[in-house]
Amino acid sequence: MKSCYIDYAMSVIIGRAIPDVRDGLKPVHRRTLYAMRELGNTSDKPYKKSARIVGDVMGKYHPHGDAAIYDTLVKMAQPFSYRYTLVDGQGNFGSVDGDSAAAMRYTEARLTKVAEELLADIEKETVDFVPNFDGSLEEPAVLPARIPNLLVNGSSGIAVGMATNMPPHNLREVCEAICRVIDEPGVSTEELMQIMPGPDFPTGGIIMGSEGIREAYLTGRGKCVVRGVAEIVEEGRTPQIIITEIPFQVNKARLIESIAGHVREKRIEGISDIRDESDRDGMRVVIDLKKGVSPQVVLNYLYKNTALESSFGIINLAIVDHQPRTLNLKELIHEYLKHRVEVVRRRTEFDLAKSEERMHILRGLLVALENIDAVIATIRASGTTEEAAKALVEKFALDEVQADAILKMQLRRLAALEQQKILDERDALAKEIERLTEILASEANILAVIKSELVDIGTRYGDERRTRIERKVETLEVEDLIENKPMLVSLTSSNYIKRIDLDTYRNQRRGGRGVIGMATKEDDGVERVFVANTHDTLLCFTDRGKAYWLKVYDLPEGQRASKGKALVNLLNLGGDERVTAVIPVREFRSDHYLFFATRGGTVAKIALDEFSRPRQTGINAINLRDGDALVDVKVTDGNQELILTTKFGQSLRFHEEAVRPVHRGAMGVRGIKLRSGDTLQAISVVEGDHLLTITEQGFGKRTEFDEFRGHGRGTLGVRNILVDARGGGVVGSMAVSDDAEIIVMSASGIVIRTKVSEISVQKRGTRGVRVMKLDDGDRVIGFTILDKEDA
Length: 791
Fold this sequence. Notes:
- Keywords: ATP-binding, Cytoplasm, DNA-binding, Isomerase, Nucleotide-binding, Topoisomerase.
- This protein is of the alpha+beta class and 791 residues long.
- The protein folds into four domains: 120 residues, Topoisomerase II, domain 5 (Alpha-Beta Complex); 79 residues, Gyrase A, domain 2 (2-Layer Sandwich); 121 residues, Topoisomerase, domain 3; 303 residues, Neuraminidase (6 Propeller), CATH 2.120.10.
- The chain contains 17 helices and 41 strands.
- It has a four-stranded mixed sheet. Strands 10-11-13-12 form a four-stranded antiparallel sheet, with helices on one face.
- Strand 30 and strand 31 form a beta hairpin.
- The protein is elongated.
C-alpha cells in the first residue's frame, strides 16, 4: 500500500497537477497545444470545432476524459483566467460571473500567436519527444517556450501533499527582468523588483503593499492582498460606489450576491440598490447608497467583509528535473534560461547541420557547373543512374550525396542566372554557417540570442500593466468601518452611558424647555454630557482615581429617550466604583497633560502618553486621600491657565506651571482652598472668549476672563456667580467661544441645545440669565460645548 500510494502521489505531482518549470505547462495543457499545432489549428487558419480538438487530444495523447481536456481548452481561452490567452475561442467560453462554457460541439478554437511562440522551433529537434500512452505516436516532453509562460501566466494546482499557486505577471516586465539577469547574473531580488514590481492579474485590481511579494520573490512563498477598484461618485442625488475591477479569481455574480446578503441581514447599513451594468466594454457594478451615509465607510466594510478584497497565497512550486521544488524569483528565471539555452543550442545545431548539408550539396553542384561538358558526357556514357553516380564520384572526387544532387539537377539550372543564384546561395550559407558556429562557440553568445528574442517578444506582445501596486499597506481597522462623526455622549449618576447623533437635537432659543434626552429612573439622573467623535478613545476616570479605556463606537447608540448601557458591562469596574470624568482623546501626545481635580480641591498633572497603553483591568491614575473623590479631568498643552470652580461659586485662576508634572499614582497638591461644605466642581482651561458658568436651577452667564486675576494656587479665589436658593449651586463652568453652541441636560433627562451668544456677558457677582426652564424638582446636571466643526 505504501509503495503504491507513493507511486500514485508522484504520478499526480509529475503528470497532472504541478507545472514544468521550463514551459509552465501541465501535461494536459502541453498535449492540447501540441495537438492543435499538429491539426494545423494555428492563428492564421480558420477556427476548428472544439469537439474535434478534444477528440484528437484524447485519442492521441491524453486518454483521461473529454471533460478535463475541454475545461483546459476553455480556461486557456478565458481573458479573465489567463493574462495572455493561449487559445483563441469563438463562441461562449464562460464568463467572470462563473457561467460555464457552451458544449464543445458549439464552440470553435485555434491557437493564439502567443501559444505559437511556445511551440516555435519544435520541429528543429529542440526538445525531447517521448512515446504517447500506447506507443503509437510521440509527444514532446516539454515545449521550446520562447515566452516565459510560467512567470507570465502563472499556474495553480493541488497535488498530493503539496500545491502550487503562481500568479501571472506582465510580459514586458518579465522579459526585461530576464534580460537584466542575463546582463548581471548577480543582480539582487530588490533590483529585479524595480523592473518587475509584482504580479499583474488579468482582472486588474490593486495589490496592497509589496512586502508579501518580496517574501515570495525571495523564498518562493508569500501572500499578497488584492483589492478591487472602486470609485466613489457623489455627483447625483445620492452617492454611489462603482466597482470596475475585482480581484483575480473572484466570481462577480457571487460577490454581488454576497453584498446583497450583508444588506439583507442588516450587517451593513446604507446600501439602497445594487446593479450589474457590465457589458462588452468592461465591468461596472453600481452600488446606490442612502442619503447621509459615508461612502468611504461602506466601501471599507465591503473591503473588510466581502471578496472585494482577497488574499492571493503565492506558492512557487514547479517540476524541476522530475522533482517538485519551491523556487524563488531568481531560481525561476535561471531554470527558464537554462531551458532556453538548451533549446537555442539544439536549434542552432540543427540549423547548422542543415546549412552544412546544403553547403555540401552546393559545392557538388558548383563542381558540376565548372565541368558541365565532362559531367554530361559521363552521364550519357553511363548505362544506368547507379553507373552514372558511381562514375561521377570516381571522376570528380564527389560523394554519393553530391552525385545524386547533380543527377537530380534540372537543365534550366545551366543558365547563367541560375548558376549565379547557386553562387549567391553558397555565399549566404557561408555567412549563416559562420553565424551559427559563432553562436555555438560560447554560452554568452547563446544568451545574447535569447536576450534579443526576449526583447522582440516583449515588443510584439507586451502591454501595459493592469494591476496597480500600492506601496503603503492599508490595513482596515474597526475605525475604518465606522463613520467618524461627532456624537453626544451622556452619563447618568448610576453610570449608564449612551451616544446619540448630534443632529437629533435641533437648536432652540435660550430659556426653552428642551426635549427628552434620556429616560431615567427616579433615583437616577444624567450626570455628565460631552461631545466626542466616534473614532475617539474615551479615558474613563472613576471616583477612586482609576483610569479605563473605551472606544466611542463601542458605546450603544440610542434614541433620545433610551437609557443606554451600564458601564459595568463595558468596563471592569470595582464593586461600587463610579465613573466621574470622561475625556475624549484622539492622540496620546507626550507634550500634552491630563489635569486632575478632586472634590476636596486637590489637583495633579500627568503626561497624556502615560495613558496610551490600555489595560482591560484599568490602571491607577492618581492616589486619593480618604474621603476624597475625583470630580473632573481636562487635557492641557503644558502652557495654559486654568480656572477651578466650586459649588458655592468661587473661582480661582492660575497657570498650570504652578503644578509640576508627576507620574501616575501620585497624590497631587492643593489647587483651591475650600470653605466648609464647599466642593470643587470643575476645571476650565482658559481659551476662547468667556467663561460660561451654569447653576443647578438653569441659570447661567458668561464672564470675561480678565475678571479672574491676582490669586495664586491654593487660595480661595474670587466669587464667580451669585449662588442662592433661586439659582442653586454651580454645576460647572467651561471656556466658550461666542460662535459655539451648548447642550444642557437635566437630571430627568431633558436636553436643550442653544447658542452661546444668547447667554449674556455679566460681571462676577451676578446670578445670570435663565438658560433652561426646568420642571419642579428637576435640576441641571451638566452641559457640554459644541464647537463649530461639531455643530
